[in-house]
Design brief:
The chain has eleven helices and eight strands. It is of the alpha/beta class and about 260 residues long. Helix 1 runs parallel beside helix 2 and helix 10 packs parallel to helix 11. The relative contact order is 0.16. Bound molecules: 2-phosphoglycolic acid.
């Protein structure tokens, strides 16, 4: 039985997959299968071009909409970028920030992730702030330092009052899209240390409210054991979120643990 103070959140990160028609179809199937349950929070994060079509499918359901990135400015001469307000206008509630792919391929730094986090919070979006170490960092004993640096960097200026809005995703980079998953014990150990860091940053009351998702090859076969860990409050799912049956099966595991 999970900690009732933190409703499990299962978020699908579709990455650069599915056009708007395909996205709408997948959203429709997800809504028909798990769109009315209330035990678990569910969010799907399509590409920008699919947001509107997916928004139309999830309206009036219990499935929330999220984006995969945003700019920190609210408008202006930033060709190719999208603001928090624009996402709110399409009824997005969540936004993934600082995903390791954005850090690796698009040069996002902790300082940029921090600006985006503050802008998302100011616009009443719920940021899903991603942190995680590479294999090299883990093997050279830098896990704790990397997690602490990324977390403190991303959350500078965030206040305890934002605890209900803020979501952290621990995604070990070596587990993303590789089929390799952190063992439930290893993941739980990192999640517990993240909560301790959050306590130091924002106080115990806020830290107890903040959801810490696990991401990195979560799938129907391993979801239940990962989600049953004390400090794992949900999942950020990439590959397995692109098929309705695997995504909803992870949601079902979360429901089972919550009821
Ligand atoms: P994965 O991706 O589930 O395909 O490993 C997770 C993520 O990158 O958010």
């Amino acid at each position: 039985m999970k900690n009732k103070a933190r409703k499990l959140l299962i978020a699908g990160n579709w990455k650069m997959n599915l056009n708007s028609a395909e996205g709408a179809e997948l959203a429709e199937t997800i809504v028909s299968q798990v769109g009315t349950q209330m035990e678990v929070a569910v969010c799907i994060c399509p590409t920008f071009t699919s947001l509107e079509a997916v928004a139309q499918k999830v309206v009036n359901s219990n499935i929330a909409l999220g984006a995969q990135n945003m700019h920190f400015e609210s408008s202006g001469a930033y060709t190719g970028e999208i603001s928090a307000e624009m996402l709110r206008h399409l009824f997005a509630n969540f936004v993934i920030l600082g995903h390791s792919e954005r850090r690796e391929y698009f040069g996002e730094t902790d300082a940029i992730v921090n600006k985006k986090t503050l802008a998302a919070l100011a616009a009443s979006l719920k940021p899903i702030v991603c942190i995680g170490e590479t294999l090299e960092e883990r093997e050279s004993g830098q896990l704790n330092t990397v997690i602490e640096t990324q977390l403190k960097g991303a959350l500078a200026g965030v206040e305890p009052k934002h605890a209900d809005q803020l979501v952290i995703a621990y995604e070990p980079v070596w587990a993303i899209g590789t089929g390799k998953t952190a063992t439930p014990d290893d993941a739980e150990a990192v999640h517990a240390s993240i909560r301790k860091l959050l306590t130091g940053l924002l106080g115990g009351e806020a830290a107890e409210k903040i959801r810490i998702l696990y991401g990195g090859s979560m799938k129907p076969e391993n979801a239940e054991t990962l989600l049953s860990q004390e400090n794992i409050d949900g999942g950020l799912i990439g590959g397995a979120s692109l098929k309705a049956h695997s995504f909803t099966s992870i949601v079902e595991s979360a429901i089972k643990l919550s009821s």
